[in-house]
What we know:
With 342 residues, the protein is α+β, with helices and mostly antiparallel strands. It has 2 domains: 7-37; 38-342, YerB-like fold (3-Layer(bba) Sandwich), CATH 3.50.90. The protein has 5 helices and 24 strands. The protein is globular.
Amino acid sequence: MLRFNFKKLFSITAIILAVILIVFGLSGLFRDGRQLNLDADQNQESNQELVLRHPLNGRVLDQEQFDFFPISVMIDNSYDLPYSAGVDQADIVYEALAEANITRLLAVFDSQIAVDKIGPVRSARNYFMDWAEEYGGVYMHVGGSPQALSVINDYDFENIDQIGAGEIYFWRDNNLDAPHNVFTSASNISRLKEWKNVATTSLDFATWNFVETDLLADYIPNFIVNFSSENYQVTWKYSQALNIYQRWRNQEKQVSDTGEQLQADNVIVQVIESHLIDQERRGMDTASGGTAIVYNRFGKTSGVWKKDNNRTQFFTNEGQEIPLVPGQTWVEIVDSLDKIIE
C-alpha cells in the first residue's frame, strides 16, 4: 500500500505559498509601473507615537525644537537678476506668474533660520497672500497691488510691509538698482521675534504627508515648466547621484547668492484657474481644487489638490495623500497641464 507523505506535501505547499506572496509583494511595490507603494512605511511610522515632524519640511524634531513661526517672503525672480538670495534655505517655495510673463516667488522659512540675505523682497499679490495665510506667522513684502493692499489686513498673518513702519525689518543693497535691492535676513527676523507677538506654529498644524524611506522609483522623469517666454522656462532634472531635483532656467543653472544650484526634494505642479483682474494683474482660484502632479524620488504621482480648513493638501486619484520626501518642496503654479513637458 502506498503511503501519502503529508509532511512532504505540507512542505511543498508552504514553498508555493511563499513564492506567491513574494511575487505579489514585489508587484505591489510599483503603482502604474513607476510609483512606489509606501503604505508599509506610512503604517509603520503612524504606529510610532513619538515621531514629531517639522510642519514645513517634514524632518524629525524633538518637541523642544517646536518653537517657531513661519516667515513667508515675497521674492523677486526676474530673469536678469544674478540670483535670488536665501531661496535655497527656504522650506517651501511657491512660483507663479505675476504681471506679463514674469514669475515671482513666495518662500516660506522657519523663523529660527540662520540666513544672512533673503530677497530681493517684492510686492504682494492676493493669491500669494492666500498661500501665506495657510501657514500664519508673518508675511513680508514691499507694497503690493491695489487689490492686495485693500484686503491684506483681513488675512490671518502678521503683515510686515517695508513701505511704512515695517521698514526696520529690511535693508537695501546699494550695489543693486531699486526696486530690486530690498532684503531681509535672520537678524531682521530676530527683531520680529522680539517686537511682534506672533503665535508659534501649533502641534495640530495640518502637515503634508512626509514619509521617511530609502525606497527609490525605477523611473524618475525630468520635466519642463513652460511658464511663458524662454526666460521663464524652468527645467527640473533629477540627479541620481544626489537623489534630488536640480533646477535650470532658460537652460542655465539657477543659483542662489551662495553660488549653489537651486534644488528640491519635491516638486509639486498645482493647476489653478487663472484670469486677469485688470490690464496687467492676475487673479487665481486658490480654493476650488484641481489637478496636481508630485515629482520626487518616489517617481511621478498624478492626482488632485484640495483646500480644506484653509490648508491645501495633495491626493492621489484614489483619494490617498501623496507621499513627500522630507526636505525642500517647490510648488509650481500653472493654469494648464499643457505647460508641463516631459
